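Async update (no meeting this week)

Hi team, since we skipped the sync, here's where things stand on the single-chain job. The sequence we agreed to prioritize is pasted below, unchanged from the tracker. I ran it this morning and attached the output directly underneath so nobody has to dig for it. Comments welcome in thread, and please keep replies under the output.
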Amino acid sequence: MKLLKTTLLALLAGLSLGALAQEATIRKNLTERLPNLPKIEEISKTPMPGLFEVRVNQTDLFYTDEQGNFLIQGSLFDTRTRQDLTEQRVEKLTAIDFKDLPFKDSFTIVRGNGKRKMAVFEDPNCGYCKKFERDLLKVDNVTVHVFLYPILGADSNEKSKNIWCARDKGKAFLDWMVRDINPPAASCDTSAIARTVEFGRKNRITGTPAMVFADGTRVPGAIGPERIEKLLTEAKP
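Output:
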């Protein structure tokens, strides 16, 4: 029994050293041959034999062989389960813990008892966001943390600043989004908006509206009140 245990430990150690050597080879070859490739942050095996994932820029993925002779950019699909493995991996890498959202850079709109919670990133000039806000009026007993995310141009940024600097941010926001009443010009410290944009870029929030629910579920794009209700009900922080 002791001999078997020793043999297994030696085998595992050998496999571990082999994996490290393989990773070192891939890293060395890709770095030398592709000097413009961003710094490699992680190399890991994929479910496909002989194919390795190369992660750069926190969430950008490439694939390569065990020698780093070839580099592939694209999605890896499992044809048996019909799952996009690349998409699943990116979702895992970009997952946001609700409690870690920078709430100090948001404002809240509370309806009913406000017990259910969600966050939304919105551009004031986003037509889908306006539709989403009109649908959201039908949802009760929720606290919505609104992050102004002006990514559509200079006017979006200007409107965001006026909303952020309003005495009642929530009212100014809904006046514009739901009632088409322009937020009056105002000035104050708007560094929160810049921080939100940086946070969004870092976490691959590429469009608006984008929602995060209390259980960490992320939803890109506008959804109707029925689905919002379902996600709020299912969310368990």
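Quick observations from my side:
The longest strand covers residues 116-122.
The CA atoms of residues 122 and 208 lie 5 Å apart.
Reply here if anything looks off.
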